[in-house]
Structures are given as C-alpha cells and as structure tokens.
Amino acid sequence: MRDRILFGFYLLGLALILASHSFYILGFFAVLLLLLARSEWFKMLKKALKSIFFFNIAISIGFVIIALLHQKPWMEYLLLFNLRVFDLTLTTMLFSHYVNIALALSFSKTLSFLMTIALSQIYSYQKSYENFMLALKSRLIKKMSERARKEFITSVFGYFFTKALYDSEEKSLALKARGFFDKS
Q: Among candidates 83, 65, 68, which has minimal Cα distance to 23?
C-alpha cells in the first residue's frame, strides 16, 4: 500500500512540475527533492546532473541559436527548461530509489506486464554493455588510442541501435499476441 501511495505522490509531483511555469516554484521543488533524498542528496544531485547533461546542452544550444536568429529573449525559457528537466529527473530517481515499482504497479495487470517487459529490456541491454566492456578489457594490452575508442563506441552504439530495432519488433509481436493492439 505504501508503494501505491508513493506512486500517486510521484504522479502528482510530475504533474505539478510540468504545470509550473515559475522559476521560483521549480527551484523550490529542486530544493525540496534534494531534502527528501536525505543523506543521499549529493549522490542524487550528481547522478541527475550527469544523466541530463548532454541532452540539456544539445537542446539549449539549439534553442539559443534559434532564439538569436529570431531575436527573441531566451534566458528565462532556458532556465525554466533546464530546471524542469532537472526536477523531473530527480523526482524519477527518488521514486525509483525509495519505491518498489513492482508493488506500486501491482494494482494493474497491464502495467505490471509492461513494467516486466521494460525491465527485461533494461537488464538485457545492461548485460550486453557489461559483456562489451569485459571483452574490450580482456583484449587490451595497452591503452586505446582515441581513434580506436571512437570506433569502439560507434560499433557498440550501432549494435544497440540494431538490437533495439529487432527487440522492438519482437516486443510488438508479443504485445499484439496478448491483445494490447487492435486486431484490425
């Protein structure tokens, strides 16, 4: 029951963050979320910043360029966007850290099934990544050159992209077989 209640608060928190258009309210949420993390606050802060860094940089640069070309103000929107993404990420991290997601979604068989599929995907990719890193480590005698590192990252990314396409077809067929899509 506790996990279901926390799931409700999580959804409410997401709705509040998404509905808020004030820098001060989003800043208040950020501080509140860090306080809720208690002793884990610095670890959560670092993890949240790391996970959104490249996404927010890419979006922010693109937005600033377009705003400058159209001679529109951009600073306030940029702060709101980055703070909102930070709050959403931190909320999700806190939720996944303190709540058993399986128990939180146990009220619905459909949600439980979808969560099982999502977790199987996550574990599959995580295991593949660990295998790639172990294979690389076992074959290295000396430090990799920058070019070899880029080639390795590119080939791993290509593998995951191809695997994602294949897996999505498989999961789609599995969901269709269980009646998740219309049979028209």
A: 83
Are 80 and 130 a contacting pair, CB within 8 Å?
A: no
**How many C-alpha atoms does 63 have within 13 Å on its Cβ side?**
16
Cα–Cα nearest to 27, from 87, 108, 103 = 87
79 contacts 23 by C-beta, under 8 angstroms: yes
74 contacts 65 by C-beta, under 8 angstroms: no
Which stretches of the chain score pLDDT less than 50?
none
Helix (H, G, I), strand (E, B) or coil at 140: coil
What are the tens digits of pLDDT across the range 108-149?
888 888 888 888 888 888 999 899 888 888 888 888 888 888
**Of 128, 127, 120, which Cα lies nearest the Cα of 157?**
128
Long-range contacts of the stretch 103-110 (C-beta < 8 A, 24+) = 103/3, 103/4, 104/3, 104/4, 104/6, 104/7, 105/7, 106/4, 107/4, 110/180
- pLDDT for 26: 92
Interatomic CA distance for residues 69 and 109, integer angstroms: 50
The H or E element spanning position 105 is none
Are the C-beta atoms of residues 16 and 29 closer than 8 Å to each other? yes
Alpha helices in 70-108 (DSSP H): 75-98, 101-104
Distance between CA 129 and CA 6 in Å, rounded?
A: 32
